[in-house]
Amino acid sequence: MAVDITTDLNKVRNIGIMAHIDAGKTTTTERILFYTGVSYKIGEVHDGAAVMDWMEQEQERGITITSAATTCWWKEHQINIIDTPGHVDFTAEVERSLRVLDGAVAVFDGVAGVEPQTMTVWRQANKYSVPRMCFVNKLDRTGADFFRCVQMMVERLNSTPLVLQLPIGAEHDFLGVVDLVGMRALTWRGETKMGEDYDVEEIPESLRAQADEYREKLLETLAEADDDIMEKYLEGEELSVQEIEDAIRRATLADKLNPVLCGTAFKNKGVQPLLDAVVKYLPSPLDIDAIVGHKVNDEETKIERKPSDDQPFSGLAYKIASDPHLGKLIYVRVYSGKLEAGATVLNSVTGRKERIGKVYQMHANKREEIASVGAGQIVAVMGLKDTKTGHTLCDTNNPVVLESMSFPAPVIEVA
Ligand code: GDP
C-alpha cells in the first residue's frame, strides 16, 4: 500500500558520496546499507545475516546501489544517499547532483591519498559550499598512511581538515580508531553485524600521547572556526562532548572545516562511526538556505521557496534512470510543498502539464510506493513524459523555475 512520507526534516540527511575511482565509494555505500539494515528505523537490530550473505543476495538482485537515490535509516534518522558519478566525464552531472544533495562524504584511498577526480569534485562542491566530511578508507592496505592523506587534504584541496579519529594499528593489524571527541577507543574484533557493533575501550597506552596531541589540535582548529569555543578555549574551560559536537556541526555547516574519519570499508571497521558523524555533523534540509528560483520567462523576478509542506509544490528533476523492473524513472528532489502520486503538475521549463504516476522511495533491498512526499525528500517518479534532467516541476497555480536552463540561442535562418 502506498504511504505518505512526511518526516521530521531535522532528521533527514540528503548526502552524496564522492571519491576517485577505486577509492571505495561502492564498498562504503554497500556497508552503509548493510549496517543500517531495513528495520533499523524502528530500533530493531537484525543480527542474523553476515555481511557477505547479504551482499550476495543484493548482487543477485542487482539493485544495491544502482538507484540514483537510496534511502536508509540510522538511529531514527533518514539518510538518502544520492549517487554522484565519480568519473570526470560526468562532471556536469556531478555538478547537478551537488545542487540536490545537502552534504557529502568524500572517500579517500588511504594509500593513494587525494587523487585528481576528488580534486575536481571537491572544487565543484566548494562552488556550492556543500558541507563535507572525509573518510580515509583502506587503512588495512599495505602502505596506507592516514596522516599523509590528511596532509594532502591541506595541500591539494586547500581544505581545513578536522581530525576526529586516529587509526589504531596499521595494515593487517588495523584494529579500530581513537575517537578524539569522546577520548575513547572503538575497536572491531569479531564478525560484524547490522546496527552498532563496535567495542568501546580505553585508549591504548601506546597511543595516549598522540591522542592528547591530536585532541589539542582538534580544539585549536575548532576554536579558530567557532567563537563560542574560542572563548572557552582561551579561558582554559573544560568542554563537554556535546559542546564540541555542536561546534563541529556549526563549523561544518558553515563550510569552514571538514571532519575527518578513518577506517576500512572492506573489513567493516569504521563505517558505523561514519554514520553517526553523518547524522551529527551534516545538514538537514532545514539547514540549507531557501531555494531561490524565478518567474517563468522572467529571470529578474526572484521567487523563494522554503522547505515546508505549507508552501506550493516545487521540485527539480535531477536524474533520469532506467530501472530493470519499472522502466523510466525520474528522480526528483522536492524543495517545497508536497508531491502527490496522480497529481497534475506544471513543468515550468516546457510549459506543459504533466501527470505524476507512481512515486517510489528506493531502499537497498526494496522499493516503497508512496502516495505523497513532503519537502526535503528525494523520490523516483514514474509516468513523466516530457520532463528532462534540470527541469522544474511545480504547482500549476504557482509556477516557478528553480534552475535556469541555458540552451544555445536558436539559429534563425533568413531566406
Ligand atoms: P569505487 O570505484 O570507489 O566505487 O571503489 P570500490 O568500492 O569498487 O572499491 C575498489 C576496490 O577496492 C574493490 O576491489 C574493493 O573490494 C576494494 N576496497 C574497497 N574498500 C577497501 C578497503 O577498505 N580495504 C581494502 N583492502 N580494499 C578495499
From TrEMBL:
Top-rank lineage group of the source organism: Bacteria
Domain Tr-type G intervals: 10-286
Any one GO MF annotation of this record: GTPase activity
Record keyword Isomerase present: no
Localization of this protein: Cytoplasm
Gene Ontology terms: cellular component: cytoplasm
Keyword Isomerase part of the UniProt annotation: no
GO biological process annotation, one example: ribosome disassembly
Chain positions recorded as GTP binding sites: 19-26, 83-87, 137-140
UniProt keyword terms in alphabetical order: Cytoplasm, Elongation factor, GTP-binding, Nucleotide-binding, Protein biosynthesis
Function: Catalyzes the GTP-dependent ribosomal translocation step during translation elongation. During this step, the ribosome changes from the pre-translocational (PRE) to the post-translocational (POST) state as the newly formed A-site-bound peptidyl-tRNA and P-site-bound deacylated tRNA move to the P and E sites, respectively. Catalyzes the coordinated movement of the two tRNA molecules, the mRNA and conformational changes in the ribosome.
Family to which this protein belongs: Belongs to the TRAFAC class translation factor GTPase superfamily. Classic translation factor GTPase family. EF-G/EF-2 subfamily.
Name the UniProt record assigns to this protein: Elongation factor G
Organism per entry: Nocardioides agariphilus
Gene that encodes it: fusA
Parent-record interval covered: 1 to 415 of 703
